[in-house]
Design brief:
Layout lengths: L2 E11 L2 E12 L3 E6 L5 H9 L5 E9 L2 E2 L5 H7 L1 E4 L6 E5 H11 L9 H14 L10 E2 L5 H15 L3 E5 L7 H14 L5 E5 L3 H6 L4 E6 L2 E6 L2 H9 L15
Parallel strand pairs: 3-10, 3-11, 6-9, 9-10
Antiparallel strand pairs: 1-2, 1-4, 4-5, 7-8, 11-12
């Protein structure tokens, strides 16, 4: 089975250990969610998987369909099919959305093969319409002057065009009002299917009302301490993360 495997992953920034033996399996065709307190290591996990240079992996491995990716540059990981939607998407002045996505797609084609422009723009406009992104945004610089909701929709647009094997969504609901949350969630759900595995990182139950996961995992102190079905998020919402203390070390919620 095609899967994104994280095995006994340890990572630090400077002298501070953040991930402490995290293991997780995300098969293609499934949506998994990670919840946890601030400082538990959720965003660190996403950045380490993507290859952020500030983090040092001290043990463990990340395998994409059996292939180790930790020694690869971020662009190589992306070309293999790993996509990260940032918690705080960055601005790229001077690079339009249309050219940014087109360049990313072109980079994945065999040498000498060119992206067909008419087909590209037809698909791009269709995806923009689905995400309620005005078509005029194709000429705007990536995320420059965008609202929080517009930035997140732009990230989902990139994901829908790139069609990754595995997508990591780092607090995609951060800063979204309810209308933007529904639009972004609808865009994510439209991509669900047997050819993509997703890892959704969030603090709150509300996102999981719209993107219903197959499995939920809870992080604490840099590792997964509890896993279960979607009702686990409701338990956390009702009782808070302090409820985890008495369950620390349990691997499965029965």
């Amino acid at each position: 089975m095609s899967t994104l495997s994280i095995r006994n992953l340890h990572a630090s920034i400077g002298n501070q250990a953040i991930l402490r033996g995290l293991s997780l399996e995300i098969p293609q065709g499934e949506v998994h969610a990670i919840m946890g307190k601030n400082g538990s290591g959720k965003s660190t996990l996403a950045k380490v998987m993507a290859g952020h240079p500030d983090y040092t992996v001290t043990a463990g491995e990340v395998l994409l369909d059996g292939q180790s990716i930790l020694d690869m540059e971020p662009d190589v990981r992306a070309r293999l099919g790993l996509f990260l939607a940032f918690q705080y998407p960055i601005e790229i002045p001077g690079v339009t959305i249309a050219n940014f996505i087109r360049s990313a797609l072109q980079a994945r084609l065999p040498e000498g093969e060119e992206l067909e422009a008419t087909q590209y723009y037809a698909e791009l406009y269709s995806k923009m319409d689905e995400l309620s992104i005005p078509r005029a945004f194709t000429a705007r610089s990536v995320n420059e002057g965008f609202s929080g909701g517009e930035k997140k929709r732009c990230e989902i647009l990139q994901m829908s065009m790139l069609k990754p094997k595995y997508a990591v969504l780092d607090e995609t609901d951060s800063g979204l009002d309810i209308d933007a949350l529904k639009i972004v969630s609808s865009g994510v759900n439209a991509l669900r299917g047997p050819s993509v595995g997703m890892l959704v990182i969030t603090h709150y139950q509300r996102l999981l009302d719209y993107i219903v996961p197959d499995k939920i995992h809870v992080m604490a102190a840099g590792k997964i301490v509890l896993s279960g079905e979607k009702d686990l998020a409701l338990k956390l919402e009702a009782e808070g993360y302090d409820w985890l203390d008495e369950h620390a070390g349990i691997e499965k919620l029965k």
